[in-house]
Amino acid sequence: MKVTETKKVTREIHVASCIKCGSDDVQITDCGYSSFNMGGGTCKSCKHSVSDSCDISPSKDELARIWNKKNDIKALIAAQQKKIETATSKIEELKALDQKYRDAKAGLKRTGQGFDLDARSKRMQALNKKGERAVGDFNSAFPVGSPVTLELDGGHVVDTTVSAPAQMMCGHPSAWFSGVSGSYHIGCVRPK
């Protein structure tokens, strides 16, 4: 045999004051739709409203939670503090990662294996100075109109004359020659 007992339980549910006006006169309701129900609360004083999706037959507790999520100042402070803790933790992770990379780069520089931009810049400056000296030397040795032999790729040899002074082109000392298209690295030039 089965016996049924019905109990009526009454309990108080915390409903936060309206965050906009501070009123305690808040109505918690749902729209009652069976397919897509929305619930929450509305302040009767200032008409501030908060809603979110909820069950088909939501409890007052569920509706109060929806309202409190956006109006309970202590809960909002706790949520912001959680965000701060998460952000602080992420910042510490990123700082540690940054330090790890800087330490690794410093170790590579000490062993000569790193991509040291300062050293690369100094090497490029030295190469440019060397190239400029080579251009100056070439222009002194082979003024415009000087007969020269140009050794091209594949062993081809062309007798020509210098048609314009040499200069640095894309980091390489280059010159122009009569009857030959384009400029050529001055290392290909031999006196005729």
UniProtKB/TrEMBL annotation:
It comes from the Bacteria. This is Uncharacterized protein.
